[in-house]
Structures are given as structure tokens and as C-alpha cells.
Amino acid sequence: MVKPGTLYQDLGTTIQKIATTNGCSVNRTYCGHGIGKLFHTAPNIPHYNKNKAKGIMRVGHVFTVEPMINLGKPQDVTWNDSWTAVTVDGMRSAQFEHTVLVTQTGCELLTARKDEPVMTWNKELLQR
């Protein structure tokens, strides 16, 4: 989906659809962002549906995708350390970040690591 001509807001629509289909919610506090001369720069890239992200992907754009996917409610609270974010309902959450470069033919995942195993979900390994 990351390729020249894609609307940035479409990322959020797709992420939200996949999350809700799997019984999860998407946090609205944090978003992806552009990478340029400044580390956190435009565009802001929300990871939820019906967002107001501006812009169209063009060759050479570099940005992050870093959704916070929750098992419960989408809202979060920040601890007194001003860094740690947790869900308001105490349910589990997962957050990751990847940096992507838009290329002529699609994209390159700049944060990919050689020979990194593909993560898969196995409900039998859930320790709750």
C-alpha cells in the first residue's frame, strides 16, 4: 500500500480495519511522522480511520509507521515519568515503529534487519 500516489490518511484506514477485525483498538494519541532534516516532521500519520492526514506519498518521502494497538480501549494515560504510556483499562498493548522510504515501485523498509524472523501470532503461547 505504500507507493507513490497513496494518500497518507489511507494508512490509518487500513491499520484500523485490520486491528478491529482482530478484536483490537487503535490508540489516537500517537502517530507516525515524516523523517527529514528534522527527525519528527510533516507529515503526521495517524493510524486510525477517518483521520485528517494531509498529503500524498511521493518518491523519496521517508516516514514512520508506529501504531499502538490495544486489546481493550484505545485511550492511554502517561505515567509520572512523562514517558511510559499505558492503556486506561490496563489491557495489553503493542507498539512498534518502522521507517519507510517511498520508491518508484513501492517502498523500502529502512528499519528491516537481515534474517529477522517473521513474527506470527500463536494464541497457545498467550500467558494470561
Arrangement of strands in the largest sheet: 1-5-8
Q: How many beta-strand elements?
A: 10
Question: What is the radius of gyration computed over CA atoms, rounded to a whole number of angstroms?
Answer: 16 Å
Average the pLDDT over all residues and give the rounded result. Answer: 92
Oligomer: single chain
- Spans of at least 5 consecutive residues whose pLDDT stays below 50 are none
Give a summary of the structure in a few sentences:
This protein is mostly beta strands. The chain is built from one helix and ten strands. The strands form four sheets. Strands 1-5-8 form a three-stranded antiparallel β-sheet, covered by helices on one side. The protein has a three-stranded antiparallel β-sheet with strand order 4-9-10, with no helix packed on it. The chain has a two-stranded antiparallel sheet with strand order 2-3.
Can you describe this structure?
The protein is mainly beta. It has 1 helix and 10 strands; from the N terminus they run H-E-E-E-E-E-E-E-E-E-E. Strand 9 (98-103) and strand 10 form a beta hairpin. It has one helix spanning 9-21, and strands at 25-26, 32-34, 41-45, 62-65, 68-70, 76-78, 85-87, 93-95, 98-103, 106-109. The protein has a 3-stranded antiparallel sheet, covered by helices on one side. It has a 3-stranded antiparallel sheet with strand order 4-9-10, with no helix packed on it. A two-stranded antiparallel ribbon has the order 2-3.
